[in-house]
């Protein structure tokens, strides 16, 4: 078991995180990824898009430039928590809901069969911030997990109870809920900050995605 401030997390041999945009993996699971790596486990991260449209100023920061910046930041962030394996799905930011569901699910099924994780983490059905890309990823991952026989544990990123009393800004107190009874549902991973420090961009307001 992996000890944390609030719960004992079952030992994870292979963790697969599946997300929509660069930085999702840091805000949602950097602490969990670091714990798995520290105990000798394998971590693989999947990102659907390069987040090229995640700005309110596309003229000042064109999509092609923002994609390069976010890709560099993501790799620096993963490096900060010891993660070396990453997979791109190659989709366009903000357009995941337009992709046929069967196509997206098939991509995730192929990765599940290739990686053989014992634990999968992704967004819950609400997408954490209600972002449509996040919600779509939750659908794809859940469907793929069911298609492959539900052999791994499936965890959804959620928030601590304190979050619901806050202003609503996404912070580093992400937690995990699970499809399995008795799995950890609360965690405050201070290690999230090590991944976030690798990012140059500031987030003074709630992130767009």
CATH superfamily: LmbE-like
Q: Provide the β-strand percentage band.
A: 15-25%
Low-confidence stretches: 1-6, 169-174, 181-209
Which strand order spans the largest sheet, edge to edge or round the barrel?
5-4-3-6-7-8
**Fraction of residues in H or I helices:** 25-40%
**Element string (H = helix, E = strand):** EEEHEHEHEHHEEH
CATH class: Alpha Beta
Computed CA radius of gyration, to the nearest angstrom:
16 Å
CATH topology: Rossmann fold
Biggest sheet architecture: 6 strands, mixed
Q: How many domains in all?
A: 1
* Mean pLDDT score: 80
**Structural class by SSE content:** alpha/beta
Structure notes:
With 209 residues, the chain is α/β, with parallel strands linked by helices. The chain has one domain: LmbE-like (Rossmann fold, 3-Layer(aba) Sandwich), CATH 3.40.50.10320. Helices cover 35% and strands 20% of the residues. A six-stranded mixed beta sheet has the order 5-4-3-6-7-8, sandwiched between helices. It has a two-stranded antiparallel ribbon with strand order 1-2. Strand 3 (14-19), helix 1 (24-38) and strand 4 form a beta-alpha-beta unit. The longest helix is centred in the middle third of the chain and has 18 residues, at 63-80. The chain is globular, with a radius of gyration of 16 Å.
């Amino acid at each position: 078991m992996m000890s944390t401030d609030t719960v004992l997390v079952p030992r994870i041999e292979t963790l697969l995180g599946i997300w929509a945009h660069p930085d999702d993996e840091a805000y949602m699971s950097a602490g969990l990824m670091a714990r798995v790596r520290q105990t000798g486990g394998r971590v693989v991260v999947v990102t659907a898009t390069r987040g090229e449209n995640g700005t309110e100023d596309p003229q000042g920061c064109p999509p092609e430039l923002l994609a390069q910046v976010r890709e560099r930041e993501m790799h620096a962030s993963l490096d900060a928590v010891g993660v070396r394996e990453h997979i791109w799905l190659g989709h366009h930011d903000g357009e995941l809901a337009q992709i046929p569901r069967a196509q997206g699910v098939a991509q995730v099924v192929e990765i599940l069969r290739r990686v053989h994780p014992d634990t999968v983490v992704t967004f819950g059905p609400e997408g954490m911030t209600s972002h449509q890309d996040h919600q779509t990823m939750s659908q794809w991952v859940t469907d793929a997990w069911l298609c492959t026989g539900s052999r791994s544990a499936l965890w959804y990123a959620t928030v601590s109870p304190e979050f619901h009393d806050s202003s609503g800004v996404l912070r580093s107190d992400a937690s995990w809920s699970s499809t399995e009874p008795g799995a950890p549902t609360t965690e405050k991973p201070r290690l999230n900050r090590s991944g976030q420090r690798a990012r140059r961009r500031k987030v003074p307001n709630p992130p767009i995605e």
